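Narrative of activities, Objective 1.

The group set out to show that a structural description can be obtained from nothing but a protein's sequence at a throughput compatible with the screening campaign. Below is one input-output pair from the validation batch, recorded exactly as produced.
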Amino acid sequence: MRAFPISRRNSPRSASPVLPSHDSAGLRRYGALAAAAAVVCTVGVAFAPAAGAAADLPRRPESSSARASLLESIAARPNSTAIPDDFAAAAGYRPVVEAGMLLNPEGDCSSPVPLPAEFDLACKSHDLGYDLLRYAAAHGQPLGPWARRSVDAALEQRMHTACAAREDALSRTRCQVMATIAATAVDLNSIRQNYGSPVYEPFFEHTGTGPTPAALVAAGAGIAGLAFAATIPVRRTRSRRGTAARERDVAIAGPASAVAL
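Output recorded for this entry:
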């Protein structure tokens, strides 16, 4: 499959090129590619591994109790008795089972933008998973990268499942888009922290002389929007030129040629 459309030859009777029918689609594709490139570059800078991110260290024994509890937190039929006895004292709450999910009853969807209410339970379960990761690290037996990946994957799956319950197709699509955006943000932050024990890193606060991650992401979104928007006047201008050229051909060649055109 070709990456770019092949231009047709210009009409020998026309001083101006006649645009192919797929030119607008091609321009839209270029705009989308430019927008995607801007976002990828900016997000890459914003979510590059932090200076304090965990480095690859020799593998240590994992906490068996934290491992078992974390697996229950992402299970379809969780068992709350798997939670370590001293977890409540360390975390400040006792996990509960609600709607088939083992979760932190005091958790929430901490996000800079409002998320659908359907994500609430999935977020609370995700909070529990992260607290279990911290619990294992605090006991000197951190869980491997697989654990954080599993918790993040469960969040994404549960958010999309929650969206599927919406009856209206448009509303369901919007919900799915928000689920994808939220899951991507979570994944990027996990990459930034090397899939280690979750640590607090202020998204909107300055921690040095450079811009905040939020500012970089906002700038990338702005660049992406401008890159796509810039293709709109170009499409309109070329479309008008193509129409004018065809009208000149018709005027010069006469009615017979108009049928051929």
